[in-house]
């Protein structure tokens, strides 16, 4: 990768997806970049974070020195508990997932296809893999959001016509945030819903593995800061 | 009174694992080092049982010190034939997983299983349910060769219960009858692995209290599932991985 990826920062990508969470939603955040969604200031909105290891209703990261050694989220981060939190065992945590109680999950991915397929558990050339709870979340959550860099380290597209890597689930992704913008799988193409403010449309086209649907009134990615202006 | 007299407290981890035979299937609880039975694992590494089938969320920690007592250690000691886990390879290219080298060389078999399916297979085993249909993994390579059935217009894959010979678990508090309480996210796989096993070995963090000292309404794993309990001694004699992983102040 040549220097820092251009366009949105990881936090901005997550902020944009977090803006989609409605009041009262129960949300599960995948390991890695997606955990940044919990930094978003939801204001008056109540968003309940669910974790595969049975922590329902966790709050911000614990301050240094005040961590509870028995408490992490699924990303092994020492979190705090919000008032009203509850603890369950693993089978119940996943019963909630498959049982339809999770409104949205935000996951990382290696590839997302225009038909909503995505792959996030086995890297190219790898034996075995790391599925974790992704396959359960992918089929159980009402909305499956993906956050990822727009291209690979070798500048290959991650938004593709069909996934080359083994699938996590077919046809489930509804929204993708990359550093280049906000994308919606539409079958054979992606709809570019919003574009990162400092990125040219030609650059997005060049680095996307399918054609794009570009609305005539294409707008820059909405972020809390430019909303407030 | 009869219950109280029949104490399940075992004096040492070595005693607790002594009779585990070669070829045993063992479930290891824990998530992110919390609720992980590291003392029992270390004793099993010393005991030396071979050809083990290990059921766990992951195959051991990434980038861990060489003495770390997890499935990676058992693998390095040549004790593991197969693992059944939700993670069998590193999730980042920069990570080093002790298990991966042996798996890539074809020395150890690995069955990868989605975490929720793994949890439900254990729960089902404990609940007398031989198999179940789940939507997880339909349309992926993990469903290949498995029965697919449609219910109400949606496809599901048949998954089988996962009974185990032994479960190694870690609890916060226990009484002498083996009634267990967990603390915070320590609970994770512990209750369902205990239910899935014929014999359950529990290491416990707090002093073991007499039967009756824990309010029955506050018990997470009933003692009927638990066979041997050992108190974890203070460090450095006992292993406290969830304390060790805390950021240094």
Describe this structure in words.
The model of chain A has no long low-confidence stretch (mean pLDDT 95). Chain A has one domain (10-44, 103-228): 3-Layer(aba) Sandwich (Glutaconate Coenzyme A-transferase), CATH 3.40.1080.10. In chain A, strand 10 and strand 11 (181-185) form a beta hairpin. Chain A has helices spanning 10-18, 90-98, 134-140, 201-206, 224-228; strands at 26-29, 48-50, 55-61, 79-87, 104-107, 111-113, 118-119, 143-147, 159-160, 173-178, 181-185, 190-195, 212-213, 219-220. Chain A contains five helices and 14 strands. With 229 residues, chain A is of the alpha/beta class. In chain A, the strands form three sheets. In chain A, strands 1, 2, 5, 8, 10, 11, 12, 13 and 14 form a nine-stranded mixed sheet that branches. Chain A has a three-stranded mixed sheet with strand order 7-6-9, with no helix packed on it. Chain B has one domain: Glutaconate Coenzyme A-transferase, CATH 3.40.1080.10. Helix content of chain B is 22%, strand content 23%. Chain B is built from eight helices and twelve strands. A seven-stranded parallel sheet of chain B has the order 4-3-2-1-8-11-12, with helices on both faces. Chain B has a three-stranded antiparallel sheet with strand order 5-7-6. The radius of gyration of chain B is 18 Å and the shape is globular. The model of chain B has no long low-confidence stretch (mean pLDDT 96). At the A-B interface, helix 2 and helix 3 of A face helix 5, helix 6 and helix 7 of B.
Question: Helices and strands in order, then pairings?
Answer:
The complex is a heterodimer of chains A (229) and B (249).
Chain A: H1 10-18, E1 26-29, E2 48-50, E3 55-61, E4 79-87, H2 90-98, E5 104-107, E6 111-113, E7 118-119, H3 134-140, E8 143-147, E9 159-160, E10 173-178, E11 181-185, E12 190-195, H4 201-206, E13 212-213, E14 219-220, H5 224-228
Parallel strand pairs in A: 1-2, 1-5, 5-8, 6-9, 8-10, 12-13, 12-14
Antiparallel strand pairs in A: 3-4, 6-7, 10-11, 11-12
Chain B: H1 2-5, H2 13-17, E1 25-28, H3 38-47, E2 52-55, H4 71-76, E3 80-85, H5 98-104, E4 109-112, H6 115-127, E5 131-134, E6 148-151, E7 154-160, E8 164-171, E9 173-174, E10 180-181, H7 190-196, E11 197-204, E12 228-231, H8 241-244
Parallel strand pairs in B: 1-2, 1-8, 2-3, 3-4, 8-11, 11-12
Antiparallel strand pairs in B: 5-7, 6-7, 9-10
Helix pairs in contact in B: 6-7
